[in-house]
Amino acid sequence: MRVVIAGGAVAWSLPALAPLWPGLRDALRIPGSIDDPAVACLTFDDGPHPRGTPAVLDQLDRAGVRATFFVVGEQVRKAPSLVAEMAAAGHTVELHGDRHRNALRLSPATAAEDLRRGAEAIAAATDRWPRYHRPPYGIYSAGSLAAARRLGFAPLLWSRWGRDWRRDATPDGIARLVSTDPRGGDVLLLHDSDAYSAPGSWRSTAAALPHVLATLALHGLACVPVPEPG
After folding, report:
1. In which band, very low, low, confident or very high, does the pLDDT at 10 lie, cut at 50, 70 and 90?
2. Predicted pLDDT at 20
3. Integer Cα distance of 154 and 133 in angstroms
């Protein structure tokens, strides 16, 4: 009985390791990059944020770049007009969840309800149902991954991240982590909100963006939103 319980716990938790093990990520069909050697995709998690998101949008607009924002339903309901503005400017708005919770702690039914509520908030603000899902912390459980797919969401992780959520993150450090020697098809993870991270961390993210975008351009990579899933 203990062996069965232990085996079930391992199976339930295994997808949570996908961000750390590319081989497992591939086996579970959770991509962390896209199949286009000419581009890189900037993605931002945890928003919208009343100050962080506009600061990031301003830097992107200055560079003429569009990105993908994985937003949280409870934050969308606080600022639906900001999310509508993001979409109207040509950025894509995708699903991070309705609340920012670790999926390993959620039942399959709770995970599915969280996905539905978050997607409904996005649709109400943008008139578009999200196509992609990225879980908070990058952590899927077996149940939440199955729920996302059952509801029609394509899971997406990342190939590089700036660790910009930390208290000690600096613009130079963020840019170095996320954009040193970039490769075509990279999906880059940053955050436009400090709602679930170190207070004010979005300031360093916004300040890092000119360097990140310049590095991508230097390597001949166009910066585009994540393309629609096939």
Report:
1. confident
2. 86
3. 6
Please state, in angstroms and rounded to a whole number, the distance separating the CA atoms of residues 224 and 11. 35
For the four alpha carbons of 158, 164, 169 and 175, in that order, the dihedral sign comes to positive
| Average pLDDT, integer, range 58-79 | 98
Do 24 and 157 touch, CB atoms closer than 8 A? Answer: no
Asked about 191 being catalytic, the answer comes back as: yes
Does the structure show a pLDDT above 60 at 39? Answer: yes
Across 154-171, b (16+ Cβ under 10 Å) vs e yields bbbbbbbbbebbeeebeb
Question: Can you give the length of the chain in residues?
Answer: 230
Rounded to the nearest 10°, the torsion over CA 82, 83, 84, 87 is 120
Please report, for residues 9, 84, 181, the alpha-carbon distance to residue 134 in angstroms, rounded to integers and kept in the order given. 22, 20, 24
Q: Show the tokens assigned to 104.
A: 């390993």
Q: Which of 45, 114, 164, 186 is catalytic?
A: 45
Asked whether the whole model's pTM tops 0.85, one would answer yes
Catalytic residue among 100, 191, 192, 194: 191
Q: What is the DSSP letter of 99?
A: S
pLDDT of the residue at 217: 97
Examine the residue annotation and report whether 91 is marked as an active-site residue of this protein: no
